[in-house]
Amino acid sequence: MKNAADAGDREASRRVLIVEDEVSLATLLAETVAAEGYDVSVLAEGGSVVDWVRRNAPAVVLLDLNLPDQDGFAICRDIRSFSSVPLIMITARVEEMDRLRGLEIGADDYICKPFRPREVLARVRALLRRAVDWRESRSDSVLSLDETRFEAYWKGIALDLTPVEFRLLQTLGQRPGRVFSRAQLLDAIYVDDRVVSDRTVDSHIKNLRKKIAESSGGDDPLSSVYGVGYKLEISTQRKT
């Protein structure tokens, strides 16, 4: 069973989804990426993208913004509600505000048309390399996060987190010891434009603290800094 699971993980690590309605461009991208040994799938419409990502857990998504049936920004926002899969936006929109909006709602990179397919391939490699480096650097630490599956482990024990709780822990865990304000945490955990009170963070922190304590026998690495926000303190000592 382990061998089958490992094989599935390796297959997923080579799976690339291209969402592009221009047939000639989609074909060119697919051929360029597939030539490097990646397993490429192409979708021409946006309506099936989110379900496809849920079912197949790709390693990277290349997403055109100007699709015939759905806005690419909305698709990115929906994907970010449950997955942190590396995502590159590809579009003819060259305005700075569009690029900033894409990055703010969760895109990892942004490429404007026209472009060279080899450039896209280089961006894909860079994103995958960073994802691997992140997993390897965290594999022996107290906190381990699998961003492609939204799975979190504290001292090797899985935490049953909601997507919002995962993003909260991910944000705090990227800079242990740094104090994040409630506003900064809200920006990180909610990828849509909903209006919520900054005190909502307190509720999520309470739930996250409880889940870590229950799984670890009492650990409480989350600290509040009066009048500022929250921070995560991680010891280098793993539980054996």
Describe the structure.
It is a single chain. By secondary structure, the chain is of the alpha/beta class. The chain has helices at 2-12, 23-34, 49-56, 72-80, 96-104, 117-138, 163-174, 182-189, 200-216, and strands at residues 15-19, 39-43, 60-64, 87-91, 109-112, 143-146, 151-154, 157-159, 180-181, 222-225, 229-232. A five-stranded parallel β-sheet has the order 2-1-3-4-5, with helices on both faces. It has a three-stranded antiparallel β-sheet with strand order 6-7-8, with helices on one face. Mean pLDDT is 81; it is low at 1-10 and 236-240.
Q: How many DSSP-defined strands?
A: 11
- Given as residue ranges, the uncertain stretches (5+ residues, pLDDT < 50) are 1-10, 236-240
The 3D shape can be described as: elongated
The CATH fourth-level homologous superfamily of the largest domain: Response regulator
CATH architecture of the largest domain: 3-Layer(aba) Sandwich
Helices and strands: which structural class? alpha/beta
Q: And the CATH topology of the largest domain?
A: Rossmann fold
CATH class of the largest domain: Alpha Beta
Taking strands numbered 1, 2, ... along the chain, how are they ordered across the largest sheet? 2-1-3-4-5
Q: Helical region count?
A: 9
Helix content: 40-55%
Rg calc: 19 Å
**What value does the average pLDDT take?**
81
> Roughly what fraction of the amino acids lie in strands?
15-25%
Secondary-structure element order, N to C: HEHEHEHEHEHEEEHEHHEE
